[in-house]
Amino acid sequence: MKKFLLFAAAAALSAAAFVIIRNLIPETDEPEEVFVSAETADERMDYFSSHGWEVSEISCRDIVIPEKFSREYEEYALMQDRQGLPLRRYMGRNGRLYVYEVKNYSPENKKMLAELIVCDGIAAASMVYSEDGGKLRFPVQ
Q1: Which of the residues 16, 58, 86, 110 has an alpha carbon 20 to 30 A from that of 103?
Q2: Structure pTM?
Q3: Residue range 73-109, pLDDT digits in tens
Q4: Would you say residue 25 lies in a domain?
Q5: Does residue 5 fall inside a structural domain?
Q6: Parallel, antiparallel, or unpaired: how do β-strands 112-119 and 94-102 relate?
């Protein structure tokens, strides 16, 4: 009878520990969406500098975010999901793509660029990549 009571107590403690730990661990590794204002040039520059990047704007153009993502664009969207940026909210919508030269990072003497997609004054997507066709790609954050 003693063994049964010890077993029951151990099982109850294990179940309680599981419930407590399960509630402490978030359901997803992806951060919640963040809405970063990027309406002005200063706000866009502050976005990059807040993550340690020194950049200077080299171009901008109007774009349309696809209504349906290709496999490559889906990979890009997953990067945005991990950064908490709301790219998916803007599927099929107009945006503006800003491209910057990165001044404070140049692995193997490669020129690095940064991009920021802005929709409705909000940073919807961002990435840092090498100018050689993006062989090096990583999130801003």
Answers
A1: 86
A2: 0.77
A3: 999 999 999 999 999 999 999 999 999 999 999 888 8
A4: no
A5: no
A6: antiparallel
Element (H, E) at 137: strand 137-138
Number of domains in the chain: 1
The answer to the question of residue 76 being in a domain is yes
| Dist. CA 140–CA 45, nearest whole Å | 12
* Calpha distance 92→95 (Å, rounded): 10
Q: Are 35 and 80 within 8 A, CB to CB?
A: no
- Long-range Cβ contacts of 30-33 (<8 Å, 24+ apart): 30/81, 30/82, 30/84, 31/82, 31/83, 31/84, 32/84, 33/84, 33/85, 33/86, 33/89
DSSP states of 77-125 as a string? Answer: HHHHHHHT--GGGGTT-EEEEEEEEESS--GGG--EEEEEEEETTEEEE
Task: Report residue 73: phi and psi, to 5°.
Answer: -70, -30
**Domain assignment of residue 35, yes or no:** no
Domain that holds residue 75: 41-138
